[in-house]
Structure formats: C-alpha cells, structure tokens
Amino acid sequence: MPKLGMEPIRKAALVKATIVEIGRAGSLDVTVSQIAKRAGMSSALAHHYFGSKEEMFLAAMRHVLTLYGAEVRGALATAEGPEGRLHAVLRASFSPGNFRREAVGAWLNFWVLAQTVPEAKRLLAVYQRRLRSNLLAGLRPLAGNRAGAMADGLGALIDGVYLREVLKSGPPDSAAAVAVVLDYLNTELKGKGA
Amino acid sequence: MPKLGMEPIRKAALVKATIVEIGRAGSLDVTVSQIAKRAGMSSALAHHYFGSKEEMFLAAMRHVLTLYGAEVRGALATAEGPEGRLHAVLRASFSPGNFRREAVGAWLNFWVLAQTVPEAKRLLAVYQRRLRSNLLAGLRPLAGNRAGAMADGLGALIDGVYLREVLKSGPPDSAAAVAVVLDYLNTELKGKGA
DNA sequence: AAGTTTATTGACTCGTCAATCAACAAAAAA
DNA sequence: TTTTTTGTTGATTGACGAGTCAATAAACTT
User: Fold this and answer.
1) How many domains is chain A partitioned into structurally?
2) pLDDT per residue over B99-118, tens digit each?
3) A6 strand C contact, CB < 7 Å
4) Where is the HTH tetR-type domain (chains A, B) (predicted)?
C-alpha cells in the first residue's frame, strides 16, 4: 500500500482533523487517537509526522490563520477605495466560515493557548499586525493622523464583537456584527476634525 | 480535629485554589489533586464537597463574576453623573485585579467553557446583561435613543480591548485600555446629532 | 539483488487522573 | 451513652492517553 509522497497529504488530513475535533470538543481536550481516527490513520502515524500533540495544535493554528488571511486577501482584491477596503476586512472577519463550530473552537482555544505557548502567541501577534496594517491602509486616507488609534480600536472591536457573537445563544448574526463595527467607523470618521 | 461548620471554609478555599491553579496552568487542564493540595486538603475531600470537577469550575466562575460585579458596584458607588458612571465601569473593567494571572486565565477559559457547558454560558450572559444595563444607565442621559446601540458597541469593545491587552507581550497597560474605550465613547457622543 | 528510504500499525510502556469507598475521628443529638 | 451527623483521608478502581518501538511492506536506489 505504501505510496510515496504521503507526508503532505497525511499532514493536511491531520491538520483538518485537529481543527474539527477541537470544534467538536470545544476545547483542546482532544486525544491524538481521536484526531488520527478522524484523519483515517493510526495514532502512531500522527506522532510519526508531527512528533507531539502540541505540534499538531500549532500546525492547526497556522492553518486557521492562513485561511483567514486568504479570506481577507480575497475580499481586498475586489475592493475599491479606502472605504471599500475597510468593508472588505470586516466582511472577511465576520464571514460565515468564521462562525462555523470548528473556527470558533479554534479561535477561542488559540487565545487560551497563546497564554502559555510562545509560538501560539507569536502567531496571534502576526495575525494582529496584518489586520492592523490592512485597516491602516484603508484608514490613512480617511482619518490621517488619527488612523493609528482608530486601527487599534477597530481591531479590538472586531475581536470583541466576534467574541460576543459566538458566545451568545442562538445563531450568530454576521450582518449585525458588521453593522456594529461600521457604526463605530462612521462615527469616528465623521468626528475626525474634532 | 474535625471542627464543625467547615463546609463553607473548605469550599471557599477550593474555589480560590481552583482559580489560582487555572491561572498557573493557563488552561482548565488542572487536576483535582492539584487544586485540593493548594487548598490544603485531600482530593477526596474536594470531591466530597463539590461532587465533580465541573462543579468546582462553575463555582470558581461564579466567584470571579461576583468579584467583578462587586468591583463595578464599588466604583459606581462613588461615581457622579452619567459620565462618571461610565468611567467607573471602565475603571472596574480594566482594574489591575483583572490583569492578574488568575483573572486572565479564568476569563479566557470561561469563554472556552461557555461553548459547551450551558451553565457557564448562562453565567456569562448574566454578566453581559449587567454590564449592558450599567452602561445603559450612563448612556441614556447622554445619547438618548442611540444608547442601546452604543452599549452593545461599548460592551464588545471592552471585551476586545481586554483580550488584546492580556494577549500582547509585555505588561498590560490599563490606562491605555481605558483610553481606547473613552475615545470611542467621546467620539460617539460628539457625533450624536448626526 | 541487495540495501535504503518511506509508510504504516499493533502492541506496549509508563504515567495520570476522576471518582469511589471503607474506615476513622470528633462533635451533636437522642 | 448510644446514635447520628459531619469532617477527613489513604487506598483503590477503572479508565484513558501520550509517546515509543519493533515489525511489516512497498517503493526507490545502486
């Protein structure tokens, strides 16, 4: 059976399975066996390719962050003008995909992981810097020297709105989430001269 | 040795120890034995009083929420005028106590817990409603019919700013956190008539 | 053809841990 | 003073889990 070149395939399957299992459990309390089983292989093979469970978590985190990055980039590609760019970032941040069980579980647990695992904290910092830079690109033409402060506020607001949206009972309302952030944005832009 | 009336004392010690251990581990991956040891008793006694680890977690969560509620109430007691009330809520939300390792660990992990444990979600919802109501009391005189939307935005912003502040490298800067939220508040209030 | 690299797993090690139980001790009630 | 209630723990159970290892097999190299 052993075909060569399985490594990337197996790794990809494990990463996906890791995210799914974290979403199912709602926590990092998932076993390597569970992950491996979902990915269709033995737990020994999972250890063979990743060495440890923590490596699997970090690979999963990188993947989630990559997906999100791709979503933002995709939205930005068709965006026109500063407002369009800002809106694109919001659309990507509150896209349906980010409200799927797996994504929610991933984000919440990666925040927890970042407390104690330096590499997790680093990855999160990279994502935040990229988000900030994207926001800044849209804000500078509109808000001038206030752009920096606004980008910080917007970034935090995005995380906060996301958090509340995923933790509330009932289905998340991404339109409402975008509206809250847009309201902030518009008010800040109007009050720019003050 | 057995003095009577130990139950509340033991339970309180266990709750405190649970929070400390969650802070130390940065996750809910703490054993009943660890908690019991820190609280100065056997793990069997911990089970005797709480029945299960999950009950200990929930009791710890209630305690953290109670502390936070008390802090807000204390700050509100000396606050004057709507602006003063809003400021008091911010002060309490970003007080040094909330940036202690134990508090950070508690909040992050309670968010995770809320995904899967209904009682945890309920407790979080109670806290959010109370926060909203406190914000609303300060906002209504200043923002009239926009108070509702602003309270939602402010609540989310508080959570988001807290999250970023605790996850960034280096010591948290509560003054900066308050400033970001105040900026949002002031801009929204100025733009009220628009 | 012999040797090497890659793929794969069942079985195993060594450890942990939540929860239970039997037993003991002291105070309160009867 | 017997009995019941409350406090307390060491020992145990029963289960699970991360990571290792030896063994098997296919493919690629020489």
Assistant:
1) 1
2) 999 999 999 999 999 999 99
3) yes
4) 8-68
